[in-house]
# Entry
Amino acid sequence: MNISVIGTGYVGLVTGAGLAAKKHNVICADKSSEKIATLQSGGLPIWEEGLEEILKEAKAQQAISFTTNITQAIQKSDLILIAVGTPSLADGDADLSQIYNIGSLIARESTTDKIVVLKSTVPPGTGDNLKTLLNESSNHGVTFEVVSNPEFLRQGSAVSDFFYPSRIIVGCSTDEARKAMEQLYKSFPCTIQFCDRKSAETIKYAANSFLAMKISYMNMLATLSEELGADINEIKEGIGSDPRIGSDFLNPGLGFGGSCLPKDIKAFMKTGANHAVPMTLLQEVLKINEKQPDLIINKLKSFLGTLKGATISIMGLSFKPNTDDLRDAPSIKLVHHLLEEGATVRAYDPLVHVYPLDEVSLFPDPYTTVEDSDAVIFVTEWDEFKSLNWKSIVSNLRLPLILDGRNMFELKEMKKIADQHDLIYCSIGR
Ligand code: UGA
# Structure
């Protein structure tokens, strides 16, 4: 099939490269000449495990090309995948301007019938509106079908998620579109759930909101657990072994961040409000998430008294490991709070080398970071932190206080290390 993918962010690029690896002819189009030039010259505008290899192979097979000429990409394809951004507006709603701009262009420039596939995360009803826009402003008497095909890729494991999805959701209203989507995904090892467009769009928001809900629930339980003197890890294991609950996404910590969960939950609440359905449950999920960094701040204060004049080291700045993405990263909320309280902040992250808050000094490794610090907070659970030399860490610290904001270290192990090196170790909910 001739396919174009419009938008070369992490969803568009991984999808384009993956479909090319599955032997489709793919044109990746983006208005950013900088991104396209990077891709044409063999570079990558984003880092994702395994992406470089599959792109190289697809290029060698001449299965993929890159262009800023979106009109030409549209005209050359039967299937057009839209994977442009839908950022949050001030009221939490999704900004759909990029989707509708591409829609107008497709309507204007198409000279043959097209199937337009929405990969971007959009509020329920967007696909229907896009279909109306396309067919009403069609210039050459062509017909359009719109398919909602939401994406469940996780940053950091997007390539393997692409090839081994848990399910594929397809919302469409014609047999022709259904057949085209069956053809597109014919060699994928999972079921395809066909449904109407609005249900498909809702599934995406509902899935991300449910994941966020699991995290906030665990964070609430972690706070209770501390008061009770219980261990949140035991609670996690005990409830997670019930298959009706499931053991994934039950890790308490500093809260969820990233470019998807916080944005999608707000947009889903807005969808509810627009239909007079108050999504108060999700409001609580967000509230718990906002307050989660306070837990660490309070622990710090209980040891240090005041944070004024204290030096605090942060380990890990990105919203999760294996990415340099800082969008809605919990580190930002935490650091703001520390600075407001008068602390000096030093930080290290394996991939983040530029930070939006100038007051934060970045260092090239954990050991120089912690020099003369009163406390160290582990904010992102990078694997490399698991093999730290605690002796060197402790000798560099002014006060050996370690706060583990992701429960990334074994409690028993840390108790031993604490005894050996005379340090204080605190984690979340245990
Ligand atoms: C999320 C979803 O997991 C994907 O399925 C979805 O496709 C994607 O959003 C999207 O809509 O594009 P992602 O944002 O890459 O993926 O990150 P997650 O792995 O979901 O993590 C989100 C946040 O939750 C991170 O800050 C992480 O630290 C936090 N988290 C995750 C917890 O605090 N506890 C957990 O148990 C799991």
